[in-house]
Amino acid sequence: MKKSLLHVDVQEAVEKWNSLLLTHFPSTTSWRTKSSDGTEGSIETFLDSLVTAHLSAMSSNYPFDIAPALKHTLQSLVQLAADLVL
Description:
The protein is an all-alpha fold. The protein has helices at 8-19, 43-59, 67-85. The chain starts with 7 loop residues before the first helix and ends with a helix.
């Protein structure tokens, strides 16, 4: 077993962050895919589902937890940067 050089509290925080599931969030690339009926997906539909997912993720937990929304936002920013570079 590999021993981590991180402090125990930091290691636990990293493990918690990595275990966060983002199943309620739309895919970071779903805004540019076709919908099930073959039409182009609209940015409005994507944004609506994104806002709904973020609000429900932040309001469904007690105490308040912004981590899932923050993780999805960071993943989306990385995806956007990758799309702009390529």
